[in-house]
Amino acid sequence: MSIDIKEITSKKDLKRFITFQFELYKGNPYYVIPLIDFEMSTLRKDKNPAFDHAEAKYWIAVQDGKIVGRIAAIILDHELKEKSLARFGWIDFVDDLAVSKALLETTKEWVSSKGAKSIHGPMGFTDLDFEGALTDGFDQLATQATIYNHPYYIDHYKAWDLEVAATWVELRGKAPSQNPEKVGRAVRIIKERFKVKLKEFKKAKEILKYAPGVFDVLNEAYEGLYGYYPLTPKQIDYYVDQYFGFVRKEFVCVIVDEEDQVVGFALTLPSLSKAFQKAKGSLFPFGFIHVLKSFYKNDTADLFLIGIKPAYQK
After folding, report:
1. Tell me, what DSSP letter sits at residue 289?
2. Which runs of E-coded beta strand occur in 134-203?
3. Model confidence at 283, in pLDDT bands (50, 70, 90)?
4. Does the structure show a pLDDT above 90 at 19?
5. 141 contacts: CB under 8 Å, gap ≥ 6
6. Which residues lie closer than 8 Å to 303 by C-beta, 6 or more apart?
7. Looking at the chain, which terminus has fewer C-beta neighbours within 10 angstroms, N or C?
8. Which of 262, 219, 263 is nearest to 239 (CA)?
9. What is the pLDDT of residue 57?
């Protein structure tokens, strides 16, 4: 049967693009369903400030009237100018090489017309979007911030002659019941020597004052990481609005210097994986209940973002 590649041009089709993966992973106990509203916001030009310096196109592969694959092509202005490089992301497909090849060839044709000589992915507009390909741990529950994909994806990527550009490792372990004494001793020495302190918050909304500083540190700390580009002020405002509504003060660590400027931070969340699975892509009308429960009854924490100014590292 022939494969038709159709460009996404309407809000209705964009929702079909987003929810295709829901059917592809139906019944998989390790896959975590993303929130549709978050995905829509990220992929819409009128919502995501990344489009101030980027452009993108989205396609679905249709076979016998049924969606069998999807892909996004993304061009960041600075990445294209500096490296003649474009991105692909939001990629999912059934186990059919003809489908995945058709998606990639369509993407390559468009980015080539824009001047790109190479393509890499899966990646998003920023480092805070879904990125990477799972190569191991297919029997582990995904986090709400990372990609889960079927094992056969890797065979398809190899068939396309894609090479590994970077390797990311996710570690899991048990939290100690109390901090080792040597950690406490190190903390006391560091506080005194570098004149830094842990910021105490009485209410979660007090954290918002330090949110821009947190993202400034993120830009500095992540500068050398693969594919990272600094977030603009508009993007920082966007992510503060997107993510800080989920933040609880007990799970946030902000370190400041003598001038009350952020020099390090850790944003942690109770695992939302099971809550998102139950929410089935939407917080309303009942999905938010599962999310709220996960904040008060949970045995797992996700270390969401951690950053330290380079001057304070090591």
Report:
1. H
2. 197-198
3. very high
4. yes
5. 29, 30, 32, 273, 274
6. 266, 268
7. C
8. 219
9. 98
Q: Kindly report, residue by residue over 86-99, the tens digit of the pLDDT.
A: 999 999 999 999 99
Q: Provide the phi-psi class of 186: left if phi over 0, else alpha when psi is between -120 and 50, else beta.
A: alpha
pLDDT value for 176: 87
3-state class (DSSP) for residue 147: coil
Domains (range + CATH), the chain: 4-159 (3.40.630), 181-312 (3.40.630)
**Tens-place pLDDT, residues 155-184:** 999 999 999 999 999 999 998 888 899 999
Q: Which two tokens stand for residue 61?
A: 């592969």
Q: Is the pLDDT score of 1 beyond 90?
A: no
Q: How are beta strands 252-256 and 262-270 bridged, if at all?
A: antiparallel
**Amino acid (1-letter code) at residue 111:** V
With b meaning 16 or more CB within 10 Å and e meaning fewer, what string describes 141-175? bbbbbebbbbeebeebbeeeebeeeeeeeeeeeee
Whether cis (ω within 30° of 0) applies to the bond prior to 230 is no
Measured distance CA(234)–CA(124) in Å, rounded: 17
